[in-house]
Amino acid sequence: KDTVVKLAIATCTAPVNIAVVKYWGKRNEDLILPINSSLSVTLDQDQLKTTTTVASCRSFQEDRIWLNGKEEDINHPRLQSCLREIRRLARKRRSDGDSSVDVGCLSHKVHICSVNNFPTAAGLASSAAGFACLVYTLARVYGVEGELSGIARQGSGSACRSMYGGFVQWIMGEAEDGRDSVAQQVEPESHWPDLRVLVLVASAERKPVGSTSGMQTSVETSSLLKHRAESVVPGRMKQMIEAVRKRDFAAFADLTMRDSNQFHATCLDTYPPIFYLNTVSRQVIALVHQYNRHYGEARVAYTFDAGPNAVIYTLQQHVAEFLSVVRHFFPPDNNGKKFVTGLQVEHLG
Ligand code: 2P0
C-alpha cells in the first residue's frame, strides 16, 4: 500500500467573453480593481474556449504549467496570485468546517495544462478564458465551491466575467481590498436564444500595445477616460442591463457600438496615442452603419477590443444576409475563411 500515490485531477473548460461595456483602466494594479464597471456576453462552451487540466499529486516536486503544449514560467505574479488565493480560500473553508475541501491535495504541488481551441491567429484575447478556467479547475481539485470571480479577477480583469455564462456584469466595487469587485450574472445564456456573435478577422498580427500597459498609459494621460469612467459608464451600465433584460436589440446595438467607439476614442486620447483599429476595421464600421441605415433599424452591431478584429452581434435571422454582404465587400483570399466550431470566424480579404 506504500506504493499507492494519490492523484487528484480535474478538467474544465471556460469560454471567452466579449464586452459590450468595456473595461479599460485600473485603480489598483496589484489587485486588478477597475475604474469602471463593465458588461459582457460569455460565448457558448462549444465556441472559443480554454480547456485546463489540473493534477495534484504527492510526488510532484513543484508547481508547473504548460500553455498550448509549451512549459511556461509558473512564477508569473498573476499565476502566483491565483494559486495563492485559491489555496488560501480552501484552507479557510476547511477551517470553517467545509468537509468537501480535500486537505490532502492542499499540501501537494500541482501540474497545470491549458489549451485553447481557437487559433491565436484569430487575435482574440485568451487571458479571460485562461484565468477563469485555471481558477475554476484548481477549485475543483481542492473541492472549493462558490464565488470565485474575485480570484479569477486577480489573474486578468476580464477573466472574472468568464466565470459565469450569459450576460455578465463586473461590478467595480468600492472596497480597497477588492472584496466587492466581482462578477455577477445579469441573465443566463438561455435568456436571448437568437442573439449571435460573429468574429471578423481583420489582422492576425499581434497587437502593438498590450491591454495591461495600454490601459495604464490611458489612466495616466487621458482625461477622456476619466470622464468616461465617472460620467458615462454608470448610466450606460443601467441602460445596457435594461436593453438585455428586454431583449431590445436596437438599444443593445446602439449602446454596444457607442461604447466600442468611446473606448477607441480614449485610446486615441491616450498620450502617446494607441491605435487598435486599422483600415479594415474602419471599413467594417462604415459597412455596419450603411447596412443598418438601409433597413432603417440597427440589425447588426460591431465591437472592437484591443485589436483590429471586429466582433459582430446580430440576431439569427440576419446572420446569412449580413455574412453575404461581408463576403461581397471582403472577398476571401486563398487562405480563405476559417471556421471555429459553432462560431463563424471570417477572415477578411
Ligand atoms: C474588456 N479589454 O472589457 C476590455 C475591452 C480589452 C478592451 O478586458 O490587465 O486582458 O489582464 O486586467 O483583462 C482586456 O484587458 O487586462 C480587456 P488585465 P485584460 O474586455
TrEMBL record:
A single BP term in Gene Ontology: isopentenyl diphosphate biosynthetic process, mevalonate pathway
Gene Ontology MF terms: ATP binding; diphosphomevalonate decarboxylase activity
Alphabetized UniProt keyword annotations: ATP-binding, Cholesterol biosynthesis, Cholesterol metabolism, Lipid biosynthesis, Lipid metabolism, Lyase, Nucleotide-binding, Steroid biosynthesis, Steroid metabolism, Sterol biosynthesis, Sterol metabolism
Catalytic activity, EC: 4.1.1.33
InterPro entries: GHMP_kinase_C_sf, Mev_decarb, Mev_diP_decarb, MVD-like_N, Mvd1_C, Ribosomal_Su5_D2-typ_SF, Ribsml_uS5_D2-typ_fold_subgr
SUPFAM superfamilies attached to this UniProt entry: GHMP Kinase, C-terminal domain (SSF55060), Ribosomal protein S5 domain 2-like (SSF54211)
UniProt keyword Lipid metabolism, yes or no: yes
Domain Mvd1 C-terminal as annotated: residue spans: 197-349
Enzyme type, top EC level: lyase
Pathway per the UniProt entry: Steroid biosynthesis; cholesterol biosynthesis
GO CC term, one of those recorded: cytosol
Protein name in UniProt: Diphosphomevalonate decarboxylase
Provenance organism: Muraenolepis orangiensis
